Amino acid sequence: MTAAVGTLHGKERQLEPALRRWHGVRVVATREVNTDQWGTFTGERPRQVAPAEAARLKAEAATDELGASLGIGTEASFASVLGFGPPVHEEIVVFVDRARGIHITETHRRFSHVPPPRTAATPAEARVLLSALGYPSHGAVIRGSRGEVVKGVQTFEPVSRMLSTGRVTIEADLRAHMNPTRQRVIRRLAWRLSARLRCQCPACGTPGYGIVGSERGAPCAACGTPTHVMRADVWGCASCPHREEVARRARTADPGRCDACNP
User: Fold this and answer.
1) CATH class of the domain comprising 2-113+179-198
2) Which long-range contacts (CB under 8 A, 24 or more apart) does 135-141 make?
3) Were 218 and a residue from 121, 153, 195, 253 both cysteine, which residue would form a disulfide, CB within 3.0 to 4.6 Å?
4) How do the domains of the chain map onto residue ranges?
5) pLDDT by residue (tens digit) across 99-144?
């Protein structure tokens, strides 16, 4: 069995181990699908759709190109949750089964230590900034004073060349093949997806039964007033309407999260 993955950046290497081990699925990358059409980290193409939708479109385009019934797409975003503080890396994978007419979404979120873009005027300054990115194992994006952009920088030669004409701006290259940290996240997400595909819907038997939402309203531990804290996860099927609520381990909310106790 083969699953097609829409990628230009070698993600099949992170996705296949889990899917092959638990499901006997071989993951094959596309060659023609231009995944940059759904947005780039460096801004040449702004993202036109939500990340989960972009991942689904990549998966469907992959099945179209390779004629497979199974498709996979991933999409990442790096942004501060409240507009400040450390960025959160959200990685989304969407698994499409065209034969069953279903798609399954899994998400992994973690705080990221990606430094913001910074400017260097000398080779010494540039080397310090590159080191903070994890260079050379992690690639960099270099922007020159004349508007030129070089991606996938893992040697100092292009940095030195661009410094000869002025300052450079240095930032992380967040594409999967240039970022081993992101590769580890994709591998972890692949195992979560594989585990979910082993879980069948109790109503119809379709694989991929798992969390599809959550419900707020955990009662305050002091006064019992419903709060905005999550009280339950909603498990659901990708094929039939079956849903069930599964209470979270923490049955009550801290009074500090209660509008009545802490207005």
Assistant:
1) alpha beta
2) 137/180, 138/172, 138/173, 138/178, 138/179, 138/180, 138/181, 139/172, 139/173, 139/175, 139/178, 139/179, 140/170, 140/171, 140/172, 140/173, 141/41, 141/42, 141/170, 141/171, 141/172, 141/173
3) 253
4) 2-113+179-198, 118-173, 200-263
5) 999 999 999 999 988 899 999 999 999 999 999 999 999 999 999 9
